[in-house]
């Protein structure tokens, strides 16, 4: 995800495309999230059921240091990569 390897050291930006079909309620957003790369049209998009529940409290996470922020971001990015590779 992000770039397509064209060989000989050349790369081209991917054409990541996301679609969501689901419902929005006061408590959650739930449905199917589909991901495809418009450069690669060989198969069906990856699809995953998701549910994002409403959280109370501060919308932003208060972090004490760069290291704490980096660990949080790495976790988010890893989950995103796992989703896109499935």
Q: Can you walk through the features of this model?
A:
There is one protein chain. The protein has one helix at 66-85, and strands at 3-7, 10-13, 16-24, 28-37, 46-53. The strands form 2 sheets. It has a 3-stranded antiparallel sheet, covered by helices on one side. With 86 residues, it is an alpha+beta fold. Helix content is 23%, strand content 42%. It is built from 1 helix and 5 strands.
Low-confidence stretches: none
Report the major sheet. Answer: 3 strands, antiparallel
Main-sheet strand order equals 3-4-5
Helices and strands, in N-to-C order? EEEEEH
What is the first-to-last residue Cα distance? Answer: 12 Å
Q: What structural category arises from helix and sheet content?
A: alpha+beta
Query: Which bin fits the share of residues in helices?
Result: 10-25%
Mean pLDDT: 85
Which of globular, elongated, flat, extended, rod-shaped describes the shape? Answer: flat
- How much of the sequence lies in strands comes to 35-45%
* C-alpha-based Rg, rounded: 17 Å
Number of strands: 5
Number of helices: 1
Blueprint (SSEs and pairs):
Blueprint lengths: L2 E5 L2 E4 L2 E9 L3 E10 L8 E8 L12 H20 L1
Antiparallel strand pairs: 1-2, 3-4, 4-5
């Amino acid at each position: 995800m992000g770039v397509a390897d064209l060989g000989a050291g050349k790369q081209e930006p991917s054409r990541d495309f996301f679609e969501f079909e689901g419902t929005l309620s006061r408590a959650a957003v739930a449905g199917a999230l589909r991901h495809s790369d418009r450069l690669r049209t060989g198969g069906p998009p990856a699809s995953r059921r998701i549910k994002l529940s409403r959280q109370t409290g501060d919308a932003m996470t208060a972090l004490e240091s760069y290291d704490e922020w980096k660990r949080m971001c790495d976790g988010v990015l890893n989950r995103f990569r796992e989703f896109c590779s499935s």
